[in-house]
Design a protein that fits this description.
This protein has 5 helices and 16 strands. By secondary structure, the protein is mainly β. The protein folds into 3 domains: 80 residues, no CATH class; 107 residues, Jelly Rolls (Sandwich); 94 residues, Jelly Rolls. The strands form 3 sheets. Strands 1, 3, 6, 7, 9, 10, 11, 14 and 16 form a 9-stranded mixed sheet that branches. Helix 1 packs across helix 4. The termini are far apart. The N terminus is likely disordered.
Length: 320
């Protein structure tokens, strides 16, 4: 084990090898890996140490991982943020002298993504994007999809938006896992598939990346038992459905669209029922306007209304 420096006394039992390595593996190296979407890798102790205090500040301020939903206001299945215990462990490790606690050079690797492997079936539709494009229009050649996976070939791609003539499909933001719709559900694709990409500017210390084609994988499905589609809804006014559907529909996910740095609390108001919290979205960054998948889908009846304490538009992913 490396001997601590005299100016860096060890005052904690939290170590890189035991606690911090596991947290970084679960929460950070999806982006902070060699050729990842973040400008610096965090896969070894020596890579992490110079950034340790910045990591602590970003984690405690909840600026990293990128996630605009406040903890405790709604629950989402794709939440990548650290738990309060994980944040406390990171702070204790940094303030306690950054002890290594294990073999020198121990590397961090992301956990195998079982879901991503499911998008490599022969029936899946695979679209390869040319290098150095900001968007692409490609024939979908499918009618129904039950999920999608995006693999950026340029590490500076931070987000992607997918649409077709039938409407919105979904989003990908750096660090997001593949999307799999509920069993028996599928979303209709019509005409050309539109893929719009956003790239971040290069950091001053960052080397020029080696570019590869990006890959979009679509899970092809047959006619579903439950149809999924998207609608844009303005907060605080009655919803005008784009689908002629009688009765309630289910809200699977929300994508709030706010002004840069704006914040909004959003809830669902139904006559004769308590308000249902959707989420509190803070310090919004349009470049990271992701879809938030609800841990508990909400019923949206014809007489219900999405309310907010700020001006906003929400892209809803609905199912019936």
């Amino acid at each position: 084990m490396a001997r601590p420096a005299a100016h860096d006394p060890i005052t904690t039992k939290v170590t890189f090898a035991r606690e911090i390595r596991a947290i970084l593996s679960a929460r950070c190296v999806t982006c902070h890996a060699p050729h990842g979407s973040a400008p610096m890798p965090l896969t070894t102790y020596d890579e992490v140490r110079p950034w340790a205090r910045a990591i602590k500040e970003q984690v405690l301020d909840r600026r990293m991982p990128k996630w605009h939903a406040a903890r405790g206001f709604g629950a989402f299945t794709n939440d990548p943020t650290l738990t309060p215990l994980e944040s406390a462990l990171v702070a204790a490790w940094v303030d306690g002298g950054l002890p290594r606690g294990g073999a020198t050079g121990t590397e961090i690797t992301a956990s195998p993504d079982v879901t991503s492997a499911a998008f490599r079936r022969e029936s899946d539709r695979v679209l390869t994007l040319p290098l150095d494009v900001a968007g692409l229009s490609a024939p979908a050649r499918v009618q129904w999809i039950a999920g999608w996976s995006f693999e950026p070939g340029d590490p500076r791609i931070t987000s992607a938006t997918l649409t077709s003539a039938a409407g919105g499909i979904g989003t990908w933001v750096a660090g997001d896992p593949p999307v799999v719709l509920p069993a028996g559900s599928a979303l209709r694709v019509s005409g050309a598939l539109q893929i719009n990409l956003h790239r971040r500017p290069a950091a001053d210390f960052e080397a020029e990346p080696a570019l590869q084609p990006s890959v979009l994988r679509l899970r092809v499905a047959g006619p579903p038992a439950r149809t999924v589609w998207q609608e844009e809804v303005a907060c605080n006014i009655p919803r005008q459905p784009v689908e002629a559907v009688e009765g309630p529909v289910t809200v699977l996910a929300v994508r709030p669209m706010l002004d840069a740095r704006a914040s909004a609390r959003i809830w669902l108001q139904r006559p004769g029922a308590p308000a249902a919290i959707v989420g509190w979205f803070r310090d919004f960054e349009p470049a990271f306007a992701r879809t938030y998948w609800l841990a508990r889908p909400l019923e949206l009846s014809p007489d219900s209304r999405l309310q907010s304490d700020a001006r906003c538009t929400i892209q809803l992913t609905l199912s019936r």
